[in-house]
Amino acid sequence: MDAWLAILMFATPISLAAIGETVGQRSGVLNIGLEGTMLAGAVCAAMVALWSGNAWLGLSAGIAAGAALSALTAFLCVSRPADQVVVGTGVNLLAMGLTGAWFRSLFGQSGKLFTVPTLPKIGGLDPIAWTVPFLALGAFVLLRRTHFGLALRASGESPKAVEASGRSVFQLRWVGLLVSGALGAAGGAHLALVVSSTFAENMTSGRGFVALAMVTFGRWNPLGAFAACLLIGYLESLQFSLQAAGGGLPQELLLALPYATSLLALALFGRGGRAPAALAIPYRRSG
Amino acid sequence: MSREGIRKLGRMRRILLALVAVGLMGCSSGGGKSIDSKGGSNEGFKVALLTPGPVNDSGWSAMAYEGLVAIRDELGAEISNQEARGTQIRDAMRSYAQRGFRLVIGHGFEYNEPGVELAMDFPDTVFVSSSGGKTSANAGAFRFYLEQGFYLAGAMAADLSKSGVLAMIGGPKVPSIESTFKAFEAGAKATRPSVRVITLFTGQDSDVAAAKRATLEAISQGADVVIHQANAAAQGVFEACREKGVLAIGSNANQNDNESGVVVGSAVIVAKPAFVELAREVKEGRYQGSIRLIGMEKGAIDFVLNPKLESRVPEAVKQKLAGLKEKILSGELIVPKDEF
């Protein structure tokens, strides 16, 4: 039981980011800046928790930072028709640079090991990790069973039809990006406050990019994305067990196991999946 | 294929390219320069440091940066440091040499070969790498014998362990880290031949969560004393040990006062004197290309117990550690180390 709770706990940062990004991509926006958003969430959460001594305050600050970054992205990519890939790349570089510089200015060039206040545990798990399955279910219901979800999905498939029906594509995509940014940053905050109880430069180590892959792996379905994250989480823990057992397999190979397996799964079962038709295409209102 | 289909294909390719680009940039993130000087003019003595990772890693690279700062403070040198990996190494070295830097220190074995090659083109610049096997008139290596500290740590860990299982948690699997792990295992096995030592690598220095997870896995397999070479991710190792109530051993820097309160001792590199001595030789024009082994006898390597947890270490173990130190210093005990 303990081992399964640990898998859920370690999978929570990527799961939050992947669920949020599924909603975002369904609305038609690709948030390549997810890695930077998670990192910004992590550093803001850790620093505010450290100063205030309150992990909840840290979590809120992290989410706010992520929302701010995705608002910037939304302004450029939704309100203005900028290229989403270029802007997202810029957001990643901005976040990596800023968090690193801020961290160095606080703790000196040669760094410091420290701990930050963490969230309380209920039944062996923190409250955020407990909410993730419900969040995945909630996002699924929102997308599939509500009018708003229908409109959101339509803005990712056929924005012109949304506009014709009287809804604003811009508004829907803003919502999609804000959800992606806020949940991505919440994932980063969870990584810093709960999983690691510290901050280290570039501590997300590519989790944002993995989350992007999990959206595809989960076939743009929040429940699918969550399941994909759990699978990766399980494989990561299996990988360490195999390393520890020392069965003679090269450790480099074992480290790649979770990613090799998901690539394989994607190649074998990924055929039914289809990206939203208007994904990553900026919407321009025409006459 | 329809026109729409072709357009989509083009878009996908663009997205993929951008992802690759981001990945590459991620690898070289923080490659920025920082120049820090104390009244140095262009004619002054200039020293540069290249590190494989960010200097705020609280470990390997941080220690070299502190050595560099000591060179500035004690010799009045103008200093500069930069992260450089792979193909960036030669460019960074060349650019420092062209700007008149007298000493370029590359903190890792991977800087040895490029340094020796470039030394021919820049006879007025000295290139020194931390470990590596090649030399020329104005290039060489100095290697910290951290294996000595790890051997002592292993000897103590084997005595402190109740379960007879120890663990070593590493970031990337690189020769320098593997060599220290072998020394730890040798020290442990010399003390207690039946001891089991689990080795886990996370693959990344910055991934605190992975370090914590690896440590939890090792503890679940019975490990009750854990040493690490995880640099910036070390807090993950210590947190896992604190949660599960087992002991940890610090490395590179003295990490005994870590907030987790589980670090019973640290295998330490005291890099400053060696860095300053090297720079002084270069400044005075006395440097001769050579490979130097800098260990316990020079005071550069030590194993330090945490005074707050000393009650956990029986008197007999302390005495044995002192005896082993003695033997290392006298040359009676030669700690195994890999050449790389």
Please describe what this structure looks like.
The complex is a heterodimer of chains A (287) and B (340). Chain A is globular. Chain A has helices spanning 2-26, 34-52, 55-79, 84-107, 127-145, 147-157, 159-164, 169-196, 207-217, 222-245, 251-269. Chain A contains eleven helices and no strands. In chain A, helix 1 runs parallel beside helix 5 (127-145), helix 1 (2-26) packs across helix 9 (207-217) and helix 5 (127-145) crosses helix 6. Chain A has a domain at 8-109 and 131-205. Chain A is an all-alpha fold and 287 residues long. Chain B has 340 residues and is α/β, with parallel strands linked by helices. Chain B is built from ten helices and 13 strands. Chain B has a seven-stranded mixed beta sheet, sandwiched between helices. Chain B has a six-stranded mixed beta sheet with strand order 8-7-9-10-11-13, with helices on both faces. Chain B is globular. The model of chain B is unreliable at 24-42 (pLDDT under 50). The chains are: A mainly alpha (287), B alpha/beta (340).
- Rg of chain B (C-alpha, Å): 22 Å
Mean pLDDT of chain B, to the nearest integer, reads 88
The averaged pLDDT of chain A comes out at 91
The number of distinct β-strands of chain B equals 13
Q: In sequence order, what are the helices and strands of chain A, one letter per element?
A: HHHHHHHHHHH
Strand proportion of chain B, as a percent range, falls in 15-25%
From the structure above, extract its key features:
heterodimer, A: 287 residues, mainly alpha, 74% helix, B: 340 residues, alpha/beta, seven-stranded mixed sheet, six-stranded mixed sheet, 10 helices, 13 strands, 43% helix, globular
